[in-house]
Design a protein that fits this description.
By secondary structure, the protein is mainly beta. It has 2 domains: 159 residues, Jelly Rolls, CATH 2.60.120.260; 137 residues, Sandwich (Jelly Rolls), CATH 2.60.120.260. Helices cover 5% and strands 44% of the residues. The chain contains 1 helix and 17 strands. Strands 1, 2, 4, 5, 6, 7 and 9 form a 7-stranded antiparallel sheet that branches. Strands 10, 12, 13, 14, 15 and 17 form a 6-stranded antiparallel sheet that branches. The chain is elongated, with a radius of gyration of 22 Å. The N and C termini lie far apart (53 Å).
Amino acid sequence: MRVFFRSLSLLLGFFSVQIKADEKEVNAAGWGTASQTSIAYDWYPQKAVDGNPNTYTQVPTQNNPWWKVDLLKVFIVNRVVITTMLFCCSEWMNGVHIRVGNVSSDVFSNPICAVISNIPLGASYSYSCNRMAGQYIFVISPGIYKGLILAEVKVYVVYPGNLAAGGSVTQSSTYTSWIAEQAIDFNPGLFSQPWLACSSTAIQNNPWWRLDLGHIYRVSRVVVTNRRDCCPEQINGAEIRIGNSLDNNGNNNPVCAVISSIPAGVSYTYACNGMEGRYVNLIIPGNSRFLNLCEVEVYGEGLYKQTI
């Protein structure tokens, strides 16, 4: 019965939210940092985003108890999925608000995504947020002397039109487990261990990373997210190159932009003004350099059907 509830409710939620063909929907809840008004026992707020519906977080009874996840940057929030505890207290969810916004200090200043009427024990219900933009997702039980128990919260964000989705990548070398694919895994690596979410070459001369889009696109912009944990200066001087040649591993293609610097954990957008190309390279010219990339997004305004 427990599996039935969760499967059925998630299926209904899937059909209630439309995803366009060129979009990618990703659960970003685990990328952020969770907090709540107070903690009961060892039921910590992170347990609501640990991917395990059999662990729980609890806020003791108080006025307006809330739980929050900070995604660390603004995303387009498509939907939020709430899973209740299997054994107790599903009625605590009655009247709970899901709020999405950019105000950390005042929960009620953030717009409402949904108001929960009820969720059965051990069930997962999906609530459409209709592409609300926000960094903070609050789950709050408004009122006097209320409690809050959550088994799992998933926050699905969308990346509209990111051409990097489904592309193939390679890099000049790999530092331990920092593989090239982690730069297009939709996880910007802002909170999780960077070696699980970011790519990096080994230290070498002229390190590079290359994305093969599979077709020739007119690239309008490239978004690069820098690592947050340390060493943001390692990206300084990186060149973004776009074209159709694999001469010198694609590093002879025309330059879209040169990255002067990107602050730690920040995403910068570089306009490429419709440059045509199948390959997107990032290269740092110089001796004894690393190339770290936590996320690379590529957006294009047109597609030529032929391949090279």
